[in-house]
């Protein structure tokens, strides 16, 4: 089979709305490598969008799933429950930030985790309004895309969004938006449009993912925590992309001196198997009535088994320290290219959740064309990269944290060559 042949078949089989950044059709994957149907080898700096932090097909994850396969694959926990579901809840209750009694709910996707966190917050508070941030990404369900602070491609054409959701600016120094601006946005909202006594929750990503890998300042987290405490509002951390060692901590909220009431997680939780969760304060999580939460596939036994193995691997291989080391090396390499690549506007991100943002060399105008040229040049050389950002001018780096040193070094050489080659391509008019 050829990639081009499959791509043609795709046009008549798959909905056009399913976007794709490459036409590389994978046949095999191992740790940080993928091979396509033509036998071409790629270094994967996407990791399924931060899903396989422990690498493709980590032996311990695969062994755990194979063992579970030999027992059972599905009973629906709400009908015939199983012990490892309970045990994973116990582990997450102990690991998620917050020195208080916790409860956990398992679902299937990150969007489901967000949806359920909002449901829980609304039930617990008896309120309906929710505040989110510009540039945020919280999923493609109706509540998820309503919370998402980016119109294209997520909201355009899908009609009216869910009611009682409000957006305020997210602090980004590079774009001239301060913590004071963000909090002033909430103050203005409370003065003009929204009684704080109607607000059930404020939700944010500790590091914006799709929005551009902007890390929330510590001052913002403290201000939000105080605002929520003063007004009886639930603070929700969306750790779907930031969780499980990606930022150099098991959870990104560990970088702060305050904790959320509810934490949403998915992606890397189960190392490539569909599993998501909400963990939070027991009195909030227990507010909903029995039957109000759940789902047929929520906490599927294979995903649960994989998640136990993922947590073991993160601890045994010290992947938090590994993420910090790899991220430091990546940032240093990018910094060394500034003189040769004046399009580099900023290099940022905690741990191994690193991004580089590109502007025009002459001013601060976002340069999505250059970001895409770098991505395409890298792909030609066998390195898979992803773009992101409200202006699509950011490249995010999401390699498996288990990537071997020699493969990482090879990827850095490809990245440098790709950035220099992108400079040689004539600018679009």
Kindly summarize this structure in a few lines:
The chain is α/β, with parallel strands linked by helices. Helix content is 37%, strand content 16%.
Detailed description of the structure:
GO terms for molecular function: 4-aminobutyrate:2-oxoglutarate transaminase activity; identical protein binding; pyridoxal phosphate binding. This is Gamma-aminobutyrate:alpha-ketoglutarate aminotransferase. Belongs to the class-III pyridoxal-phosphate-dependent aminotransferase family. The chain contains 13 helices and 15 strands. 37% of the residues lie in helices and 16% in strands. A 7-stranded mixed β-sheet has the order 4-10-9-8-7-5-6, with helices on both faces. Strands 1-2-3-13 form a 4-stranded mixed β-sheet. The two termini are 37 Å apart. It is globular and about 60 Å long.
Sheet having the most strands: 7 strands, mixed
Overall number of strands? 15
Report the helical percentage.
Answer: 25-40%
**Helix/strand/pairing category:** alpha/beta
CATH class of the largest domain: Alpha Beta
Shape: globular
Low-confidence regions: none
| Strand numbers in spatial order across the main sheet | 4-10-9-8-7-5-6
Question: How many separate domains make up the residues?
Answer: 2
Q: Note the beta-strand portion.
A: 15-25%
The overall average pLDDT, rounded, is 97
Rg of Cα set: 21 Å
